[in-house]
Amino acid sequence: MVKVKILPDKEHASEEVAQRLHDLIVEKPNAVIGVATGSTPELAYALLADKIQEHNTDVSQLQFFALDEYIGLSWDHPESYHAVINRTVTEPLKVDPSQVHIPEAGDDSTEGPVRYYDEKIAEAGGIDLQLLGIGRNGHIGFNEPGTPFDAPTHVGALTELTRKDNSRFFDGGVEEVPPLAVTQGIGTILKSRQAILMAFGEAKADAIRDSLQEPPAEERPGSSLQMHSDCTFYLDEAAASKVEH
């Protein structure tokens, strides 16, 4: 059963998530943490960096695994997830780049599994805590509607809605957003020991409602988290507005 925490705003939710992350790192200095990109978790990462600095927390043994990456976008492009994770996680947390792993696939890759990344996660001992956001159509990672719940890390096509939503990060608009991405699969995500999904704003209310109140179904990727052994949704009141409490 998914646990739900409704906070007054993004700031309060991000503080709670940052504290959970810091508690995990103190308890398990060699923790393996799955990190998401996008604007949703950025404040939580900044607050975690503050806690690490304040407490002089050892981060030398941590490992981080990013959720996804675009296909065909140079890694030095500011919106590649190699670049985003570097400026939101690697640099602020002052961890060595060798501790941070990001899925990769060739620019000529087409849809299909990318199993080496799951093997790399398994070799690290599995993900202790996975951070997630959610798209307006319910996608988690880049697992779009229709993705099988047992899917491993794979290359998949992005929907036009996802590309449109992500175009706000690209100066040239939707045409600059790559049509393919490599992503941890839903099956990969469900293997994490703990998962946290963060969602803020009224635009996410339908996806949150469908993820929590509708039966798990592949057309609703977020609903797969009902099958997770330990998942918590951190929401502001707007994102939770269509959930029957």
Automatic annotation (TrEMBL):
The keyword Transport does not apply. Keywords: Carbohydrate metabolism, Hydrolase. This is Glucosamine-6-phosphate deaminase. Pfam families: Glucosamine_iso. One of its GO terms (molecular function) is glucosamine-6-phosphate deaminase activity. Its EC number is 3.5.99.6. InterPro entries: Glc/Gal-6P_isomerase, Glucosamine6P_isomerase, Glucosamine6P_isomerase_CS, NagB/RpiA_transferase-like. The keyword Hydrolase applies. It comes from Enteractinococcus fodinae. Residues 12-228 form the Glucosamine/galactosamine-6-phosphate isomerase domain. The lineage of its organism: Bacteria, Bacillati, Actinomycetota, Actinomycetes, Micrococcales.
